[in-house]
Every structure is written in structure tokens, then in C-alpha cells.
Write a structure and sequence with these properties.
The chain has 6 helices and 14 strands. By secondary structure, the protein is an alpha+beta fold. It starts with 5 loop residues before the first strand and ends in a 19-residue tail after the last helix. The chain binds uridine-5'-diphosphate (UDP).
Length: 255
């Protein structure tokens, strides 16, 4: 069988050439990394959970009119997406203090922020994804003012929708990271669309009652079994109704 052409391999995903021009296949790996790759492990079944969670969240966002690169899930580990020109920014939206923000300003982890805060980080592993301002973004040509305006709007709409969705299942959306891309239609009109993934690898989710963490902080700080946390999120969202946390513990169904 002919091998597919691998377009890109990142820490948690591989992109392959898609079946039609302008499409890609996004494959979710089981690799867990933190602290810019300093900590690494294989968590069997994580890729399957992230594929399902990302499919679910991108689909719900699409339904409320957020343009995304997502087309459809193909199998347990792969989804078909539109090929976009990735804007080299990690857009972080925060509702509660945690992680680098809590550290930078000496805030207590979990304290409610006066309002949602949006930050931009320049995507560069060599530089450790530095925090940047609108000035850097526009001066270095990573995005225009108009594009940043659109990105900010989309990021806040995504935050509002996801915060409500997670509150409904007893979870607090502490913060998350998204990436956007440029997509051209048949009339050569460009649109900014949500790209990459939306999974517990890129967001902090705490239980509303107990503040138990179900996200990648489990892995970063050894706070518990990573896959069980992700499976709990999937279970609450009503994904994998056939598989509770017990079923994803083994290697059988999730390879
Ligand atoms: N985040 C991410 N990729 C990164 C850095 C951060 O997905 O390279 C996510 C992270 O999971 C969290 C949010 O962005 O949900 C804010 O992360 P923070 O700046 O607090 O950095 P961290 O504590 O992860 O180093």
C-alpha cells in the first residue's frame, strides 16, 4: 500500500496529506509533553480521547458559527481537516489565575480574574513561546491589526461558549490555548478559522465543587492519572458513553 506523505510532525500530532487538495489528516499521538518537551511520556489512549474531545468541541463551536478547520473524524485517532496557513501565535484565554499568569503576578491559583484576559505567545519552541504584544505581532508581520481584531473576537466567543458548556457539566474552564489559520475560499476571500485542536492538553478544567484537576496539570505536576482525567472530561461531555474511565485504562480498545 502506498504510504501517505507526512507533512508535519509535532509533539502531540502528525499531519498527513489529505485525500483531496486543501485537506490534511490530523493524527493524534499518545505522547504527553510538558515544560517545552523537558518532560515526556507515552500515555496509551490519550490520542484517542483528544481526537474525540476535539471533534466534539469543534463541532459544537461550528454549530454556533465559529469557523473551524475541522471537517470530520475519520477513525479513532484521525480527523480530516482543512489545510490552513497557521498564524504563528498561541492565543491564551484566561478566566481564573493559573500556571504562568499566577506565577508572573503572584496570584493564587484558581482565583477569579476581574475579567477574561487574552494573551498572545509567539509560537517558537527554540525561544520557549515568548509572550508578545500586539506591537510585536503587527511589526513582525505575524498578523495584521484586522486579523488580530478578528482573532480576539473569535477567542472571546469561543471562551463564552466553552465556559457555559463546561459549567453545564460541573467543570470550570480556567484557561485554554487556541491557534488560528488563514483559509481562502473559491473567490480568494480569506477567513480566519480555528485550527489545531481543542483538548485537555491545551486547557485547564477543574471540578466546580472540589477543584480537582482533570487536565494536563495532572501530568505536569504528578497530580494523578492523566488518562483518567481526560476520560472523566469525555464522560461528562457525553462522549464515549460506552466507555467509562475503567474501559480506557487498558490498552485494548483505545489503540
Ligand atoms: N498552553 C498550551 N501550550 C503551550 C502553553 C500553554 O496549550 O505551549 C495552555 C495551557 O495548557 C493552559 C494555557 O495555555 O491551559 C495557559 O498556559 P500557561 O501560560 O499558564 O503556561 P503553562 O503553565 O502551561 O506553562
Amino acid at each position: 500500500m502506498a504510504r501517505r506523505r507526512r507533512v508535519y510532525e509535532g509533539k502531540a500530532k502528525i499531519l498527513y496529506e489529505g485525500p483531496e487538495p486543501g485537506t490534511l489528516i490530523q493524527y493524534f499521538k499518545d505522547d504527553a509533553t510538558a515544560f517545552n518537551n523537558a518532560k515526556h511520556a507515552i500515555v496509551t489512549g490519550k490520542g484517542v480521547l483528544n481526537n474525540r474531545i476535539s471533534e466534539f468541541l469543534m463541532t459544537r463551536l461550528g454549530e454556533i458559527g465559529i469557523p473551524t478547520h475541522f471537517i470530520k473524524r475519520l477513525n479513532m485517532r484521525e480527523q480530516l481537516v482543512r489545510e490552513v496557513e497557521i498564524i504563528p501565535l498561541e492565543v491564551v484565554v484566561r478566566n481564573y489565575a493559573a500556571g504562568s499568569l499566577a506565577k508572573r503576578f503572584g496570584l493564587e491559583e484558581g482565583s477569579l480574574l476581574p475579567r477574561s484576559i487574552v494573551e498572545y505567545y509567539y509560537k517558537s519552541d527554540e525561544l520557549g513561546d515568548p509572550l508578545v504584544t500586539e506591537e510585536h505581532v503587527t511589526a513582525f508581520g505575524w498578523a495584521t491589526y484586522q486579523e488580530l481584531d478578528e482573532i480576539l473576537n473569535l477567542a472571546l466567543r469561543i471562551n463564552d461558549f466553552l465556559s457555559g458548556l463546561f459549567t453545564g457539566v460541573g467543570l470550570k474552564l480556567i484557561d485554554f490555548k487556541v491557534e488560528f489559520g488563514r483559509l481562502w475560499d473559491e473567490n480568494d476571500e480569506m477567513r480566519i478559522v480555528l485550527a489545531d485542536e481543542l483538548s485537555p492538553d491545551n486547557m485547564r478544567l477543574w471540578d466546580i465543587e472540589t477543584n480537582e484537576r482533570y487536565d494536563k496539570d495532572r501530568f505536569r505536576f504528578g497530580l494523578g492519572d492523566l488518562k483518567q482525567g481526560y476520560a472523566e472530561i469525555a464522560r461528562r461531555l457525553g462522549i464515549l458513553p460506552e466507555a467509562g474511565p475503567a474501559d480506557v485504562r487498558g490498552t485494548g480498545t483505545l489503540q
